[in-house]
Design goal:
tt1808, chain A; 2 domains; 7-stranded mixed sheet; 12 strands; endonuclease; Uma2 family endonuclease
Amino acid sequence: MNKPARFPSVTGDTGGTARFTAAEFLHMVEAGAFDDIQIELVQGELVRMNPPMNEHAGRQAELIGQLWAVLPDARNRLRGEVAIDLGDDTIVACDVGLLSAPYEGHRSVEAGAILLAVEIAMTTADRDLGVKRLLYASAGVPHYWVVDGKRSVTHVFEHPVDGDYASLRLVPFGETLAVPGTYATITLD
């Protein structure tokens, strides 16, 4: 994802920060409250995301194209910019999501349906390697990749345990990446 833009806190009469549930957030989305902006709900707070830039979009298209080519059922399992429901107060979007199986529904996808979540980190490596990694691991997403364009490497996280991933491998661009749930590999440049 691109670098998050800070969304001003909403305060009530008590001076506390307004917190939202996933259900409230989805209701606001459906009502059109965020039609002109990209926004995520992270632990009850709204976080505004900057729109993807050209290089980010190119890497995302490259990754989706390569996965599409090696997944026989890609149409039913591969998603770009998919909203993932990570619990009662967190809904985030990953740049590319590979579902464990075809998923019914028009809203967000439940974390248990995600086999692989991928973030394209052109300007957001700190967030993607930090808070997003911990959110995905805590929700039990089994595989998480951060495609780090600045370092020309993909951070491959696997095996979520106690709110973090037990395994991390760095795969330099130009080397093969094993696609979870398949015998296929892809190579990012």
